Every structure is written in structure tokens, then in C-alpha cells.
Amino acid sequence: MQSIKAYQDVIRQALTQFHFPEEPSNLYKPINYLLNIGGKRIRPSLTLLAADMFGAEVSSALPSALAIEVFHNFSLMHDDIMDKAPLRRGHDTVHEKWNANTAILSGDFMLIHSYTLLAKNPPELIAPLLEVFNKTAAEVCIGQQLDMDYEKTQDVTINDYVEMIRLKTAVLIGTALQLGAMVAHAEKSQTELIYQYGVNLGIAFQLQDDLLDAYGDPLKFGKQPGGDILENKKTYLLLKTLELANEEDQREIISWLQQTEYDPSKKIDAIMRIYDKLKIKEYINDEIREYTHRAFQALDEIALTKEKKVPLLQLSNELLNRTK
To answer: In this structure, is the dihedral angle defined by the CA atoms of residues 232, 236, 240 and 243, taken in order, positive or negative?
Structure first.
């Protein structure tokens, strides 16, 4: 078993071997651009790790790992258009550097290419891999739609939010692991368990993001906390606060959500004061621990030695104890 970093290096090296045609350049250049401006490559690395865990050659899982990475970046390219995001990984987003139409079409090609990569698996594996991949691809789209829908409505519950982040973020982490296990011909019960590990870890990871956005150290987090507050994002923190707040605090929060002109620092301070008053940080930490426990429970049930599970345990600790 290798470290996550070793698998990440394999993915980075494999991505340098991608050779798209030169023309039409406005179709292919944005793809190369997005794939080469960084990224942790965690998802495809998990595919390689899972295959290794279950006894397969790492190279045998590379087509599936690359399919996951290209699909993930396709979703980012299109999400950035929908979010009107100017930056991705500290660089101009594709729709900013080129234009929205180019980003849409290049993203479409990436989606198609992810299936081309998946089809490089042995023939007997293609159908079951496609079944899992297709289900996840659809769920990611549903999660993104729910995320956009929730921006426009106040009637969102914590259960709604958790289901949205499960679909938008967590299922792809679970599937990355599941595909690797399937390539290694693991039993279905084992591929389901590693999927559940990944999904629950993904939910905990997203909740940790919510927490860091509000309570992260600016020097370690890399930006001033409170971005989600300014964007009126319906995170776990905000939804739990609205659930627990008295009428006066609810009115204050809703007033801030409805204002279009305000002093950003005053808005952040006002909302954070209510978060602190209701001890919201403790609630979200409890929730993170719950989903982490579910992830570890699934990992414990996988019929492999503890030694083979060490890289996943290390990764879990790194992701959930990060400060940025």
C-alpha cells in the first residue's frame, strides 16, 4: 500500500499524457487549461487506492480513475458558469478566460471523454462500471440543481441540505472508491461498504468546509471567513441557527438575508454573534463526528486487514482536521 501522495503523483503524470487534437483549439485548449491549473486529485487517487487495497495492480484502475477526474472537472467547468465564478484554483475560470459558450462545449466534451476513458476497462467490467458511473453522474446533476433551487427559497431544512451535499459532493467520493474496488473484482458487499465510507466521509468533509468558512483562521484558511454569510448560502450553520433562534434573532437574520446594500463586516459580525449565542459550532462539530463515525463504521466492516486500511484512515484524519 502506498500513500495518497504517491497515487496523486500517478494521476498527475497520467494527465500529462493526455493528447487532444490541436484543432479546434477553442474546444481542446480550455480542457487542457482546467486539467493543468492544479487540484488535489483526491478522487482519482481514491480509485487507485481502493484497487490497491483489494489486491489489483494500480495501473489497472487508471482508466476509471481518470474518468472520475475528467468528470469531476467537467462538473466544475459547468458549475463555474452557473455560479458566475471568476476564479478556480486561483486562476481565471474557463468562461472568464474564453466565454460561456466555449466553457459549455468544452465541458460537454469532457463528459463524453470520461466515458471514453471508462470504456478502456476490460469488456466484462464495462457494464457494471457504467451502471455505477451513470447513477452518480445523474445524482451530481440533481445535487447541483437542488443547490441552485435552495438559493431562491427560504423553505430548506437541514435534511434537505445534507441530502443536497450528499448528491452534489459526497457520492462522487464514494463512487471513486467503489470503482477501484470493482476493478479489483471485490465482492459486491465490499464495494458497497467502501462506497458508504466515501459518501459519509464526503458529507463530513463538506460540513467541515461550512465550519471553516465561518470559524477558520484567516492566516491558515487563506481568506477572510464569512464568505458563505455574505452570499446567503444555506449552510448547516445558517439552517441550524434558524431552527434554534428565537423570533427576535430570526427576524434579524432574515433582515440581513433580504438586504442588498450593507456593510459586509457588520453583516458577518451580526450573524456570527447569533451563531455564537446558540453554540452552533458545537452542533456542527457533533454532526461532523456523526458522519465520520458512520464512515469509520463502514470501513471497519470491510473484510481487509487493518494495515490495508491505514491510508484511508490517514486521509480521513487529514481531511477532517484540516484548517484550510
So the answer is: positive
